[in-house]
Amino acid sequence: RIDGKRLWDSLMSMAEIGATPKGGVKRLTLTEVDRAGRDRFRAWCEALGLTVRVDAIGNMFARREGRDPNRLPVLMGSHLDSQPSGGKFDGALGVIAGLEVMRSLNDLGIQTEAPIELVNWTDEEGSRFGHSLMGSGAWAGVYPLEKVYGLQDVEGVSVEQALTAIGYKGEHPAKPFPADAYFELHIEQGPILEKEGRQIGIVTGAQAQVWYDAVVTGQDAHAGTTPPSARRDALVTTARIIDLVDRLMRARGEDGRGTVGQLHVFPNSRNVVPGEVRFSVEFRHPDFAEIEALAADFPRQAEAIARDGGTPLALTELFRLPAQPFDPGCVDLVRQAAAKLGLPAREIVSGAGHDAVYVARSVPTAMIFTPCKDGLSHNEAESIQPEEAEAGCQVLFEAVLARANR
Amino acid sequence: RIDGKRLWDSLMSMAEIGATPKGGVKRLTLTEVDRAGRDRFRAWCEALGLTVRVDAIGNMFARREGRDPNRLPVLMGSHLDSQPSGGKFDGALGVIAGLEVMRSLNDLGIQTEAPIELVNWTDEEGSRFGHSLMGSGAWAGVYPLEKVYGLQDVEGVSVEQALTAIGYKGEHPAKPFPADAYFELHIEQGPILEKEGRQIGIVTGAQAQVWYDAVVTGQDAHAGTTPPSARRDALVTTARIIDLVDRLMRARGEDGRGTVGQLHVFPNSRNVVPGEVRFSVEFRHPDFAEIEALAADFPRQAEAIARDGGTPLALTELFRLPAQPFDPGCVDLVRQAAAKLGLPAREIVSGAGHDAVYVARSVPTAMIFTPCKDGLSHNEAESIQPEEAEAGCQVLFEAVLARANR
Ligand SMILES: NC(=O)NCCC(=O)O
Ligand SMILES: NC(=O)NCCC(=O)O
To answer: Can you tell me which residues bind Zn(2+) 1 (chains A, B) (predicted)?
Structure first.
């Protein structure tokens, strides 16, 4: 069995890096804080005798050799980057649990048939450069590397500059290599498992998404002298588009998701009618047909609102992602592990995007969810119980071991 | 007559300080850039033999003595601070025109009966610390000095710290002293004079205003996993309040003004339902009764919207300003000057707040407006013609001279 206390201690140790006063974590991708997290992770891996390699987008692979030189590696992992006001477990759980699997294999003196590789994917969150699942997406070939290198944060720093600055632009090519399977443990980030009292979510796939960048252009004008008829207020138009996003979401019932999460006003002065607003829009749904419908309706309706306000809208679709079913064989290994351990489990579709979604395009993949308190995530108050982390890690251990020795 | 070319050259010289690539000015109050503007202004004044004194809120007074030691000074001036993306003339015109009046008096060897003082008021714009007309308001006793010292910008720097940092926390008390009159030349910042082909606006008073700070509190949550029923989205609520502000403005016709100019989203990440939004709200109207009605209706209706969204609203009224009529005698001097010079003129109510509004509470006051291109202000494209600056300055000269020698 894995060591639950050691797992928890390492989770807490990682959570010190970028710890926020409110008990959360701010470890934005490719920052100095992220570098510190990566360095600690690398040191832990090397202490176990694992060989660490880094690819051109900063993804880290820590390898434990198997007995059979002809077998493809079994992968497991997740991400160490966080939201600007994120929690301790989103991503970190999957990486640190993978580390605990490696430690337990060493402790138990187990040599697996196939090699095992533990992965830390770069920039899963997408909050800094605008593409979630960036590292796994570049690896999977979904985002051309040159395009990804050129993406910039709000300060104009590019992905390539940031990778170089923290010393994690690696020498290995960022592209799929032959692998036998990929398993990712993650917190659910939603309320379902907790509400039903299940310890394990057997993730059968992930929902569809579409993301946009929007810019509304009006005209800066004096708030005191500019009469209603002469105003072209970019923020009033944006407000109506935000309301539209919310209405389009609610029209789809409890399965709908529609969010404006990021927004910047220019010049952002109290007594100036805003001349420009830049903001993000994203929609999600388990059914790709609904996302296709939204990708047709939303731009049309938003542009009509912008036209009414005399404030043109420029909308850029950043990516559109179909729903991704996971590999039945791998999903079944998760189901069997939970059953063997007697853990209450249920099948579930992921509401969040995960690196597993892109890995699944070239490698048989499954995910394991554990509950989190009140379904809260992307929030400093994100919280799980040590027993929940331990149960999830034990399922990961069983599934990976079964696959590597099959 | 004043020297129109010298006036324009000094305007352009001041506009170099904080010049922006788009031809505007960013000379935010109490920054290093503002210090540079103040230093240049002080040097110009001292070169004319004027005595410069600075008060406790950084207002600068440059004095030219009169013949009669018993006469109270005639004041003129405006402000050198700008919006974050402001123009070259908003404020600077009134200060530099006052300087040109002083230079012309020297050139013409005129000794006036009363002394004349040229004023540069601190932080007229209000965009950094949230109180427009801050320096004149503190001087007039409208804002208690201790309260003003404690105001902070978004970075947490206080007014007192900023004053000390740039060396403009002066020794003279910031309070009204006996003065005979105050004249302020300013661009109209609206479209009326230009549309009617008038060179001079005889400003009879300024409209009423009310300003608020608003904070909407929701809950940070994952954009992909949080179903509509579980969301408490602070930005969706804010969007509806922005729409309310616009509707309340338009319900009052062309005299209504309602603006949300500044807004910050937290945590401001693409895939996080926003947990907090902070924003400004302001309303203006020539009739104070309408402002009183808005100050009763808006908080009630905004709170109802916030309640519906499950996202509480905290609203702080920053200030409420009645309409301010100017002194009939001073206004008449402006009218006479325009007539004497044969300049097409009309009476006008100011849509913007001006330092003159607070000065008028203790000193007989009038203002002179000049047209500006397309009525644009609080915009880098703000523009006036050299002849317009010259005409406004000539009216200022005549009015001040007439008052000082009456
Ligand atoms: N798991 C997770 O929070 N991913 C971030 C990408 C997203 O789903 O928005
Ligand atoms: N004149 C001017 O732009 N004043 C700034 C204060 C305001 O009216 O908002």
So the answer is: 79, 90, 186
Which is it for strands B200-206 and A263-266: parallel, antiparallel or unpaired? unpaired
Sequence-ordered list of residues with C-beta below 8 angstroms from that of B43, at least 6 positions apart, any chain: none
Tokens of A359: 């890995």
Q: Are strands B221-222 and B324-325 parallel, antiparallel or unpaired?
A: unpaired
For range B26-31, the mean pLDDT: 98
Measured between alpha carbons, how far is B355 from B28 in angstroms, rounded to an integer? 16
- Collapsing DSSP states into helix, strand and coil, what is residue A290? helix
With beta carbons under 8 A apart, name residues in chain B contacting A265. Answer: 261-263
Dihedral (CA of B168, B171, B175, B181) sign: negative
Closest CA to A74 of A336, A349, A327, A340: A327
Token duo for residue A295: 């990708």
* Sheet strands (E) in B71-162: 74-79, 116-121
Q: What is the pLDDT of residues A198-241, one digit of tens each?
A: 999 999 999 999 999 999 999 999 999 999 999 999 999 999 99
Task: Name which of A155, A187, A232, A259 to mutate to probe chain B: the one with the most chain B Cβ atoms within 10 A of its Cβ.
Answer: A259
Asked if B268's CB is within 8 angstroms of A263's CB, the reply is yes
Chain A within 8 Å of B20 (Cβ-Cβ)? no
Q: What is the pTM of this model?
A: 0.87
Confidence of residue A298 (pLDDT cuts 50, 70, 90): very high
Residue with tokens 């944006």: A238
